[in-house]
Amino acid sequence: xxxxxxxxxxxxxxxxxxxxxxxxxxxxxxxxxxxxxxxxxxxxxxxxxxxxxxxxxxxxxxxxxxxxxxxxxxxxxxxxxxxxxxxxxxxxxxxxxxxxxxxxxxxxxxxxxxxxxxxxxxxxxxxxxxxxxxxxxxxxxxxxxxxxxxxxxxxxxxxxxxxxxxxxxxxxxxxxxxxxxxxxxxxxxxxxxxxx
Length: 196
Prior knowledge:
Layout: H1 4-9, H2 19-37, H3 43-53, E1 61-63, E2 67-69, E3 75-76, E4 81-83, E5 87-90, E6 95-97, E7 102-103, E8 108-110, E9 112-113, H4 118-122, E10 127-128, E11 131-133, E12 138-139, E13 144-145, E14 150-151, E15 156-157, E16 162-163, E17 171-174, E18 179-183
Parallel strand pairs: 1-4, 2-5, 3-6, 4-7, 5-8, 6-11, 7-12, 8-13, 11-14, 12-15, 13-16, 15-17
Antiparallel strand pairs: 9-10, 17-18
Helix pairs in contact: 2-3
GO molecular function: galactoside O-acetyltransferase activity
Pfam families: Hexapep (PF00132), Mac (PF12464)
Keywords: Acyltransferase, Repeat, Transferase
């Protein structure tokens, strides 16, 4: 018989209120309490806490506190990852960030979801779908990324977007729901004052 954790990470319906998952969430909260309350100068100590919590990290990463997640063990950071203040990751399913990813402030990634019908929802059932963010993606502030979404490499997600479906590589996408606005071109190469 599968445990609730096994069901959760395999995308099957599960009840998150059992002891195993509760204890794992509590462990993450304890680690993040320490992380979010360390002095700003304690960068190495903060990163060590995340290395112990996450499934995998690159050698260079920085997450501005405060930061929140459910479990931590489903999160993989690529090399040279940066996230601004108030990143929230509900990582009931795997969340994978590629290399050179840039995250604006107040971004939320939600792998967990609930049934549409009220009866199973009230009964406490959940399910989760993974999120994948490609290499060199920039996600603007106040963006929400929903369960099961993949964002292709080099793509820019405009601030305030709600991403409900996959977004391809090499595009600028914005809005609620998030839609492709245009492709990224050579005209965007200018480091300052490039096209928006």
